[in-house]
Design a protein that fits this description.
The chain has about 170 residues and is mostly beta strands. It has two helices and eight strands, in the order βββαβββββα. Helix content is about 10%, strand content about 35%.
Length: about 170
């Protein structure tokens, strides 16, 4: 069986676990949010790549799902037991100190493979590499809120909450 590598389209990273494992579900992963047309084009590319594989089911599971939080958007799901290589937009490796957060613009290279478990079958995308096109830093203390004009602003020079996060 030959290996099938695919490159996802550029999209928005959702819950990326690229340098540390997902403690709740295990593994390294990133879902990439794209619009419907982009998802359809990628699905066709994925099926074309695996056209030699035979599926018993007429509707095998595909790792592209509707994004329940963003109408009209889809998630391309990738995951791996192993840490992927992560690069910046110029193909320079990123260090583990990089905090690639949700909202970053990324694309991924994944190994597409057929799986069959009990009576379920489909395609999975084993995450190999991620390229960060635009970084949105995430991690402890990173806020996802928009700024509010004329609101309360903490004086972080007094060693408030922000300094407590820099353990």
């Amino acid at each position: 069986m030959s290996k099938h590598y695919v490159t996802t389209p550029i999209g928005t990273a959702v819950l990326p676990f690229l340098f540390t494992e997902d403690k709740e579900y295990g593994g390294y992963k990133v879902a990439i949010r794209v619009d419907k047309k982009t998802a359809e084009v990628f699905k066709a590319k994925l099926l074309e790549e695996l056209k030699g594989e035979e599926f018993k089911s007429k509707t095998p599971h595909i790792p592209i799902v509707a994004d329940e939080k963003h109408e009209g958007m889809y998630l391309i799901r990738t995951s791996s037991k192993y840490k992927p290589m992560v690069f910046d937009s110029k193909n320079k490796p990123l260090s583990e100190a990089s905090r690639v957060g949700g909202g970053s613009e990324v694309r991924a290279i994944a190994e597409a493979y057929k799986y069959e478990v009990q009576k379920k079958e489909g395609i999975k995308l084993r995450l190999k590499q991620v390229q960060v096109i635009k970084l949105a830093e995430g991690g402890a203390g990173a806020s996802s809120f928009e700024q509010v004009e004329d609101g309360y602003e903490a004086d972080v020079s007094e060693g408030g909450f922000e300094s407590a996060l820099d353990l």
